[in-house]
């Protein structure tokens, strides 16, 4: 497969594969692909995702352009290097663990997802602060999240619970995948001001994140965890880097 990125058929094949998976999510068995081909497909999907996100953003900007208060807040609080580290590396790792790691069931995976999701809920819904903000509530949020994660891990290692959850995941991966996509997308509404307009436009404002989640879930189940992680990091690093460019 030489220079696939300049071949339209390459992207059409990726879109068809993704569409079939979204219609019928399953534990895809693509382990026979070489690492090289997995990287090619992942990079191809990254480019498709990038084109889609830019298209949606530009079309939406014609009618309505809400301010991303999370990005603005991080840009104010961090130096450029720290912003790249936190926004481009740490937060993507956190979000992939939270929303994609446990698409394949293992007690440790689900416990880590449970802990990170607990941290998200505590931060946004209870303490109403930023995920990356180290304030007086930070250690309480971290401590409680780790505690709940440890409890979940211990419970899931009980033989009966482990067996039942394994069967549950195998029989309901379709709905688990859909739920992870919707949660990932819709929780990004907290990036914007929570006014009536933004809430009503939630499905449209978070459409790029929903598309991103479908790709990330597909690559996670088909290729492995590191592939959506690297795509997520690459996307964030790209857009954060572009934000440093002078506009004038």
TrEMBL record:
<keyword id="KW-0812">Transmembrane</keyword>
<feature type="transmembrane region" description="Helical">
    <location>
        <begin position="107"/>
        <end position="126"/>
    </location>
</feature>
<feature type="transmembrane region" description="Helical">
    <location>
        <begin position="78"/>
        <end position="95"/>
    </location>
</feature>
<keyword id="KW-0472">Membrane</keyword>
<feature type="transmembrane region" description="Helical">
    <location>
        <begin position="46"/>
        <end position="66"/>
    </location>
</feature>
<feature type="transmembrane region" description="Helical">
    <location>
        <begin position="138"/>
        <end position="155"/>
    </location>
</feature>
<feature type="transmembrane region" description="Helical">
    <location>
        <begin position="229"/>
        <end position="247"/>
    </location>
</feature>
<protein>
    <recommendedName>
        <fullName>CAAX protease self-immunity</fullName>
    </recommendedName>
</protein>
<feature type="transmembrane region" description="Helical">
    <location>
        <begin position="175"/>
        <end position="192"/>
    </location>
</feature>
<feature type="transmembrane region" description="Helical">
    <location>
        <begin position="198"/>
        <end position="217"/>
    </location>
</feature>
<keyword id="KW-1133">Transmembrane helix</keyword>
């Amino acid at each position: 497969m030489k220079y696939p990125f300049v071949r339209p058929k390459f992207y059409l094949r990726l879109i068809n594969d993704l569409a079939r998976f979204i219609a019928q999510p399953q534990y895809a068995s693509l382990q026979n692909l070489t690492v090289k081909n997995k990287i090619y497909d992942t990079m191809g999907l990254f480019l498709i995702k990038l084109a889609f996100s830019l298209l949606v953003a530009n079309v939406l900007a014609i009618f309505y352009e809400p301010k991303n208060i999370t990005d603005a807040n991080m840009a104010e609080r961090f130096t450029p290097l720290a912003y790249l580290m936190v926004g481009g590396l740490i937060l993507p790792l956190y979000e992939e663990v939270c929303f994609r790691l446990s698409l394949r069931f293992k007690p440790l995976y689900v416990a880590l997802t449970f802990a990170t999701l607990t941290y998200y809920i505590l931060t946004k819904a209870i303490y109403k602060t930023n995920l990356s903000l180290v304030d007086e509530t930070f250690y309480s949020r971290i401590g409680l999240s780790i505690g709940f994660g440890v409890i979940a891990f211990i419970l899931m290692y009980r033989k009966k619970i482990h067996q039942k959850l394994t069967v549950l995941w195998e029989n309901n991966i379709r709905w688990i995948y859909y739920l992870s996509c919707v949660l990932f997308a819709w929780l990004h509404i907290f990036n914007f001001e929570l006014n009536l307009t933004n809430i009503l436009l939630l499905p449209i404002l978070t459409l790029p994140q929903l598309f991103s989640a479908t790709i990330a879930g597909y690559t996670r189940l088909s290729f492995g965890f590191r592939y959506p992680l690297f795509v997520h990091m690459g996307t964030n690093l790209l857009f954060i880097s572009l934000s440093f460019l002078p506009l004038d």
